[in-house]
Design a protein that fits this description.
Number of domains: 2
Distance between the termini: 25 Å
Structural class: alpha/beta
Strand order of the largest sheet: 3-2-1-4-7-6-10-5
Oligomer: single chain
Radius of gyration: 23 Å
Helix content: 55-70%
Order of helices and strands: HHEHEHEHEEHEHEHHEEHEHHHHHH
Amino acid sequence: MDFSFLWNYFWIYIPLGLIGFWRWGVWVFKKVCTLKYKPIPVGDPGKSSTLSIITPVYNEDVEIFKRALSSWQANNPTEIIAVIDESDKLCIEAFKDFSKDKPWAKLIVTSKPGKRQALADGIREAKGEIVALVDSDTIWARDIREKALAPFGDPKIGGVVTRQNSLEHNSVWQKMTDIFWDLRNADEWPFLAAMGKAMTCLSGRTALYRREILLTNLDDFLNEIIFGRKKESGEDKCLTRLIQQEGWQTYYQSNAQVYSATTENFRDFWKQRVRWTRNSYNSDLLALWQGGAWKHPFLAIYMIDRFISPFTLLLAPIFFCLALYLNHWAVAFIIICWWILSRAIKLIPHLKRRPQDILLVPVYTGVNFMVAVAKIYALVTIRKQKWIRGDEEREKKGVLGRTMGYVIPALCTGGIITLLVLLVIFVL
């Protein structure tokens, strides 16, 4: 393969090299910072706080819900409070069976729409000093109670998030979700915990809070307005922001392991990525605008970098296509090899746990670019809100309205990517 032409066209690929150097510099900086991170050790078990587990339930797989209940019970909580939608008859019956002869297992059947209302009802009912807000499809390891409570020995810490992984690995999308979560477990959360005890999100799959803090913030939680609209999703981002803006610290406890059900198909994977990213952008922009994020410089820098990263990431396939157009086959080959090698390096924490996923590195590389597109789509649709139960709202829009609701954002997303392409062509 002849590489002599590279000397003549080297300048074309300088921007790609500079961007790569910058992205790797950010990654190396974060990895070095994570060396300072350690989970907080368990103190005197006799001084452990009382713990209330609160789970909102809507249209849940009843078998997974039963497994979740058993796993929480094995950790000896003070109480379990299930707030179940009145339409979910199977889970209501399952919890009634579970709660027999267990006065500490409390059932709230609700007709109120939305996860926030369910969480608020559970928080008001709870008696524990610490409340764990847990998704109804999340399974706890047997020994996490004391580990998850350990950070609350520090009176400055108001919230804790646990290590999270996929419960199943049957489909490629479940495996991709697990990979993304492992990268967060290994990079994002240890970095933020070590460099300021300020997390970007106490993920709702399992997040623990001091109940007294939540009670004083319930009104703001239930009536969050972002971009002129009442926010329905993103409850975990909202709570994280609210407690941090009051000066409380948050922490990641890596030795407290939970497992959560993940989607098996591409459609739901895409929708989850868009929804999660949209929630992050909404909350992060508000935190930066109101100034709360700037109290934690590393958190603010992380948020800004997260806004930029999808655009810089998509420059790589643009340059790859440019190399193909110019018949620079050697450059295209080098780019592909670097993609695979660099992703494999970053996936080392996940591959240590699941070495068989080494075969998925090329797939992850492509999915990573797809997720960047999903993030841009989320930015385009940042004002969109969606209820858990939105059938009536969808009917009001009609077929044309629903179709345009997808077509216009897709065109805008395509337009932004086209502008990136034109920017590269114009600069070169």
